[in-house]
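S1.2 Input.
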Amino acid sequence: MEAHNDAPRPPTRRGLLRGGALLGATALGLAAPVAARAADRRRAGAAADPPTHWIPASPSNYTKSSRPSAYPVDFVVIHVTQETFRDTQAIFQNPDKKVSAHYVVASADGCVGQFVREADVAWHAGNWDYNTRSIGIEHEGWVDKPEYFTDALYRQSAALTAAVCDRYGIPKNREHIIGHAEVPKATHTDPGPHWDWPRYIGLVNGG
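S1.3 Output.
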């Protein structure tokens, strides 16, 4: 995605809902199973997933799979969208774009949209091996606009990453929670110099 110099302000959750960007889990009949899984995970001492809204990407933009049996999940890859949440949704749902991520976190309130099942391979890393072995999390904003990296975004994203790490036994460190720029042969620079890695890793580890 190309960076824009004149980015609009981050949308609020209310605005996203009004625009049809977020599909509530309750409307899809998913709230009860998600809540039950979260309760089971809390009892087991694992991090709880933050509330997540299912917004399916086009099937043309990811590969169906059965991870972790088909491929181990070893990494979480952190991205920055270089677009608004709504424009990112439009890209992921456009079958001609050939790109997706598992999750997108909104700037204004940390609202989490899930676009690809974790069992499937999202096309986010620009490296097939890393795509097969990672969960991709996009963050609404621009690499040169740190005001988009809000407290809500950091906290909800860190809660999501902690839950993903617990789910697959991924160590909660910088060797396994990496930026898109750190993927071998990556051509992207996100999440960029303004992403606060010490803060983020601290939050992932319960700080």
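S1.4 Remarks. Helices lie at 13-18, 31-43, 85-92, 128-132, 151-168, 197-204.
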